[in-house]
Amino acid sequence: MKLRPDLAIIADHVPAGARVLDVGCGDGELMAALRDEKQVDARGLELDPANVAAAVGRGLSVVQGDADRDLADYPDQSFDYAILSQTLQTARRPDVVLDHLLRIGRRGFVSFPNFAQWRVRLSLLFGGRMPVTRQLPEQWYDTPNIHHVTVDDFRAMVAARGIAVEGAWFLSGERRTGSAGANLLAAHAVFLLRR
Amino acid sequence: MDERFGLARHVRLPGPLRLDGGGVLAPVEIAYETYGTLDSDGGNAVLICHALTGDQHVASAHPVTGKAGWWTRMVGEGRPIDPARHFVVCANVLGGCMGSSGPASVDPATGRPYAMHFPVLTVRDMVRAQAMLLDHLGIGVLRAVVGGSMGGMQALSWAATFPDRLRACVVIASAARHSAQNIAFHEVGRQAVMADPKWQAGDYYDTEPPAAGLAVARMAAHITYLSEAGLTEKFGRRLQAREAKSFGFDADFQVESYLRHQGISFVDRFDANSYLYITRAMDYFDLAEEHGGRLANAFRPSRARFCLVSFDTDWLYPTAESRAIVHALNAAGAPVSFVELSSPFGHDAFLLESPELNRVVDGFLRAGE
Fold first, then answer.
1. Which domains does chain B have, with CATH numbers?
2. pTM, whole model, 2 decimals?
3. What is the ipTM of this complex?
């Protein structure tokens, strides 16, 4: 099975045998790939009970919970990597979640949709309404994305918090795009961070 | 044919079993059932732990009521725990009244039923007796221990007491300790039994049992097994077989009639003294207290995988209790899965048909096979 492009980047860069916490793990797609291909000891946290049931049904260790509330329960530095894929923008307090991520994991992967991509900008500029695009298909009132973040916003937040960026990857659909101009060109970003 | 295996088994083990309360039990009688075939390496054994008023008849007809086993939705052909690939063991708990040593058993010192001379037990005592049974059956390490409610407490106690003897632990609708509210409801039930003049300080085995008191205890407890929404949906304010209120104290309302039926049918199959002893054991249960006040310490030696399930309408052992266990397991570094399932049926949901529950337990067990 083919992984979602941002997950594929993360999977490529997690070393074999690592201990990984996947925050917002969905039905365990990434965890299963890491377990099966890299013998990773993966644990997950997921909000939706149907997704938890599906992940446990594939033999994964997944706890139902909320990144905003339940990350505080995890001990310091208990994982090699803590992963937050497409979840940052849905958190009530992304800054607090990010702090927990880098407290629990020695390193953290964060992937998120870039709200400054040109399609989104054009849609807002000419449409005058909150963008509904292929990457962001929900209406403003039912979207889980309650914190609209851009690549540059994220870079600024990370720099302000003294977090080191050890890697950054940018995607436009399935294709990788360069770091220069990513704030305009990338639909998704993946960052590897270390406190 | 090995006489140790099959339905309606009974063994008298010499003991002695040293109890948490300081006493000693000898001999130790255990009534149990097994389903399926034990692998030659003994690796496919699954222990099912029953709840307060459950018994060893997990998937066979009850000898008194004739009803099907109490967990046929979880145990049986095509079910998550399947005798086709598991060797299933379920034993009546110590203190019970279905053949294991309990207050109705004969005290070898006097030749009469123990009654209230039976030693007060803990959940850990129950678990130690189960371990003695497994020794007798030739089972070293269990593939899994599975239980709901008090059965879940036993499963947790298994992981803490015999960390090397189980590979997986399934805890459904349960808690790591009894809350003040849990103790309070049990105390109401016990006082109802003891207030019945027929109880006679527990010495009723030659006369009549305190049926009225035990029925009231069951009625009160039964309310805690259901949710308010479930009761409303099932009964509302509907009247029982009448057009109008009687302006008396008959069971005018369906919910009254239902509870009375639950109470009356319970006394036919359960010993009142057993009810006192088992509820006491549950009230004494506090797994953290047994491990220096930190629940995580209970799980540190464990190498088992854990799966916890709660139900959103269960107010007897609410989701927060399961989360506290998950928190401790995370702190201990144990592999743990947890899900809160949605059900209108309150605590009882764990006994009812639940495809989601079965999917979770099935997937969890298969991952270790």
1. 9-177+287-367 (3.40.50.1820), 182-279 (1.10.1740.110)
2. 0.93
3. 0.85
